[in-house]
Amino acid sequence: MFEQIERVPGDAILGLIEAFKKDTNPQKVDLGVGVYRDANGNTPIMRAVKEAEARLLKNETTKTYIGSHGAPAYGEALLPMVLGADSSVLKANRASATQSPGGTGALRLAADFIANQLPGKGIWVSDPTWPNHHGIFTAAGVELHKYPYVDADNRLDFDGMLAALKKIPEGDVVVLHACCHNPTGFDLSKDQWQEVMAVLSERKLLPLVDFAYQGFGEGLDEDAYGVRLLAENLDEVIITSSCSKNFGIYCERTGCLILIAKDAEQMENVRSQAAIVARENYSNPPAHGGAIVSEILHDAELSAMWHEELTEMRDRINTLRRDFVEALKPYGLDQKYACVAEQRGMFSYTGLTPEQVDRLRDEFGIYMVRSGRANVAGFSHENLPYLAKAIAAVNE
Q: Is 306 a catalytic residue?
């Protein structure tokens, strides 16, 4: 019966990884894969995570299921981090946390929840957006649409975005990136968030906020501005949170679906449905990553250590952005690529064309997605001169 099954192209980023491994260029640079890397090109285990795991190993007493919503301690730790310790939403018991296998798992839970409970409603994503958004929502059977986000000059097209939001049918779902927009790095300002919130309220649109990079832009609280604004001012919000990046626990698959309802009673209704979606999807989430996060956030010493490490990671990325633009100054390209320093998070929409990206790969061993999206964490002070020279060459 498998004879009729056709082969499909592999994931573009995974293909880049394989090509990079085979490249014999000693100066090759990987700007494709979307994980944090330190100055040595490694994805380190954070000190706070190591210490938390040591404690868990010593004190763990069972490997039993943790339930479809996950460990209660995980939700109790994550909700204040996302919504704020003084959140009126939390005080009113309007928020529900469902632990998930990564932020991707949370998005799939959200997609299935929407498909089951809001039949006929479409989902609108930014153009561009994280490519897997398309796959996740389409696989759930939800009709997918796009709204503009970046213009032809590689700048945030907020006017176009706002105009499009004002035309979306009432009750549809709008996917917003809380911070560190993937793949562009262009984020909304506080004033722009206010305008978006007003349109969502007026048009009765349901926001689904993808919060994958909390702490990687300006800070844990600063990056949550849009999320908290919507949660405090709208009756209903869906949030998908990830701990992969800010805790560096990519392989532990640790995320959370947060549903916010009008009141505590409605929250219990939607929470019951979230449990069914999780049960039918994977039954119970993996426990270890959530236990790490809980251990860190519930312990003052570990939490302080984690905050310090996260700040180091964020500062390194923001410094590399500025240094990248500075490295292009001798070639007269600093203004052309000034946007890289203005963007936030691990990713940058550089403005490089697909043809330029191909030349960087073929002639210089520099690997990135053909859209021109680069992982800034792949920059280093050692490779910046080489990168600048190569980019100058493909701009001639």
A: no
